[in-house]
Amino acid sequence: MDISKKKEVNLTQTAYQTIKEKIVHGELLPGEVISISAMAKELNISRTPVTNACQKLEHDKFLTIAPKQGVIIKTLTIDDAREIYELRAAIETYSAKNSFDFFSQLDIEYLKNSYDKQKLAVQNGDAKAFMSEDTNFHRYLLSKYENTQFFSVLDILFDRAFLIGLNSCKNSFRLLESLKEHENIINCLQQKDKQGFIDAIEKNILDGYKNITISRHNT
């Protein structure tokens, strides 16, 4: 790959990550229309890498490119949420089943440390900090089963789940409920309860989806 092509690829990756983070963290809102030219100007790069980044973001279902309108930030529906959480549950429980025997005491200590950070976020009423550490907790569980394809799929799903879950997790009840579920996951590891561990992970993920349906129904 020549230098100019490599630079363009790097700029595309930078634009992709920057725009995605703006969407995930609520700086760009569902239904909002953005201009590729304006985004290129903000990032101080040409239109081409921004266009390429938006095409990838469209493929990953974060936005829609509308001719003559610009780029429209995608509104995630309840069906989107169901598909995301069901796929997460399928992959993460399969991973849990196959990685259970590889968890060490050091792994458990890492998860406990993550749990403590989540607990602090709940005490502070900081849903965004909780969701970030929740994602880290689940990423770590997944990392014990070495499957790079799982990671590439779940990288996108985690971001989309963060985007959907942030609004529904703003009530303290769900944060406390999820915290207890994470504590149960850790306890099952300590007690060497494999089936309990698998079931606890599935419950935690699917309860997250149930909370979204309740939250949407009440708005």
UniProtKB/TrEMBL annotation:
Signal peptide: none annotated. It comes from the Bacteria. CDD domains: WHTH_GntR (cd07377). GO terms for molecular function: DNA binding; DNA-binding transcription factor activity. Residues 9-76 form the HTH gntR-type domain. It comes from Megasphaera paucivorans. Keywords: DNA-binding, Transcription, Transcription regulation. SUPFAM superfamilies: GntR ligand-binding domain-like, Winged helix' DNA-binding domain. This is DNA-binding transcriptional regulator, GntR family. Coiled coil: none annotated. InterPro entries: GntR_C (IPR011711), TF_FadR/GntR_C (IPR008920), Tscrpt_reg_HTH_GntR (IPR000524), WH-like_DNA-bd_sf (IPR036388), WH_DNA-bd_sf (IPR036390).
